[in-house]
């Protein structure tokens, strides 16, 4: 037998998730069973538990967790993997577990130089960042405003846009400004008159916007600076009527851009071109506390669960 975390109700995470006993999964011919050593914790997981993504009682108990790192425990004959290989699973279904079953297409060899915690926390944010940049078609000529530039997604948007030669103005709390400067971005606080602060900080007019904050302030300021077709958000679902693009991996283009980004993200993280900071680790049984932490104001970096 093995263990996994499920939500047994919708609500506050610490009161809503449980560690339960389940049979060890068995792979079909094209599948891989991975013994999870680290599972990434994402804001989406917390939104699932609180019911912000919908609260259908028929979906309970709900498996949680979209990404993990681990070791191949059992490999289907047609999977192309062998027992003992170090791998990353993304997208994963039910990664808050001792074992996760995935089709081989969702299993990626973990490159040397990329730690387990970093690998477990890289891909969901990374493919989202890559999707934003590809959808915006950001080039080295752009002056890119990144709302939430020190966040998990925003920091990868920032690092990659800078690597491509763009100028980046990034919003964050003052505590994250030195970090943004260390990446090469120009930091701006999001409290106060944000449009004026961006105009004052930008060496040239802003030409494109990446939004991971999803606030009306972020979208209103963006619309004051650039045309709506140069604004891509992953969180402002209520503002599509303004002509901005909001992406969630649901379109064929978005799915392709995310899938194609995975090898480059693994390479960049292994080589240190992307640095995944770990804000904290929790035992699997304390997933509720990890979910509560990621749902509220929290330090920069990712939370990771250890089975
Ligand atoms: N649609 C998709 O495909 C997709 C994929 C992944 C994530 N998401 C969503 O995108 C959001 C960000 O995810 P994440 O993993 O990057 O989260 P995260 O690591 O928690 O980062 C959130 C960032 O938002 C910043 N922030 C907080 N309040 C803000 C405000 N009023 N204005 C501007 N920035 C603000 C924070 O900055 P400071 O700490 O500096 O204050 C923090 O850096 C979440 O809502 C998540 O569910 C969507």
Automatic annotation (TrEMBL):
<feature type="domain" description="Enoyl reductase (ER)">
    <location>
        <begin position="12"/>
        <end position="305"/>
    </location>
</feature>
<dbReference type="InterPro" id="IPR036291">
    <property type="entry name" value="NAD(P)-bd_dom_sf"/>
</dbReference>
<dbReference type="Pfam" id="PF08240">
    <property type="entry name" value="ADH_N"/>
</dbReference>
<dbReference type="InterPro" id="IPR011032">
    <property type="entry name" value="GroES-like_sf"/>
</dbReference>
<dbReference type="InterPro" id="IPR052585">
    <property type="entry name" value="Lipid_raft_assoc_Zn_ADH"/>
</dbReference>
<protein>
    <submittedName>
        <fullName>NADP-dependent oxidoreductase</fullName>
    </submittedName>
</protein>
<dbReference type="InterPro" id="IPR020843">
    <property type="entry name" value="ER"/>
</dbReference>
<dbReference type="Pfam" id="PF13602">
    <property type="entry name" value="ADH_zinc_N_2"/>
</dbReference>
<dbReference type="InterPro" id="IPR013154">
    <property type="entry name" value="ADH-like_N"/>
</dbReference>
């Amino acid at each position: 037998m093995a263990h996994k975390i499920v939500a047994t109700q919708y609500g506050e995470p610490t009161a809503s998730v449980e560690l339960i006993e389940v049979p060890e999964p068995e792979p079909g011919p094209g599948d891989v069973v991975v013994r999870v050593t680290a599972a990434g914790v994402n804001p989406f997981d917390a939104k699932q538990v609180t019911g912000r993504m919908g609260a259908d009682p028929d979906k309970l108990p709900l498996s949680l967790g979209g990404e993990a790192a681990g070791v191949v425990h059992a490999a289907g004959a047609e999977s192309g993997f062998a027992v003992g290989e170090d791998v990353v699973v993304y997208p994963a279904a039910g990664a808050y577990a001792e074992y996760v079953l995935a089709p081989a297409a969702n299993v990626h060899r973990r490159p040397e130089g990329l730690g387990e915690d970093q690998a477990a926390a890289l891909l969901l944010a990374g493919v989202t960042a890559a999707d934003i940049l590809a959808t915006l078609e950001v080039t080295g000529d752009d002056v890119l405003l990144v709302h939430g530039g020190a966040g998990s997604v925003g920091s990868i948007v920032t690092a990659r846009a800078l690597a491509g030669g763009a100028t980046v103005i990034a919003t964050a709390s003052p505590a994250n400004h030195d970090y943004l400067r260390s990446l090469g971005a120009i930091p701006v606080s999001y409290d106060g008159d944000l449009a004026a602060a961006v105009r004052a900080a930008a060496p040239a007019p802003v030409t494109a916007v990446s939004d991971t904050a999803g606030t009306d302030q972020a979208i209103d300021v963006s619309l004051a600076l650039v045309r709506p077709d140069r604004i891509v958000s992953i969180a402002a679902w209520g503002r599509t009527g303004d002509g901005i693009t909001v992406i969630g991996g649901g379109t064929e283009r978005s799915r392709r851009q995310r899938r194609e980004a995975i090898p480059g993200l693994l390479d960049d993280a292994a080589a240190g071109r992307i640095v995944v900071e770990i804000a904290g680790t929790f035992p699997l049984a304390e997933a509720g506390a990890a979910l509560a932490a990621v749902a509220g104001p929290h330090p920069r970096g990712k939370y990771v669960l250890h089975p």
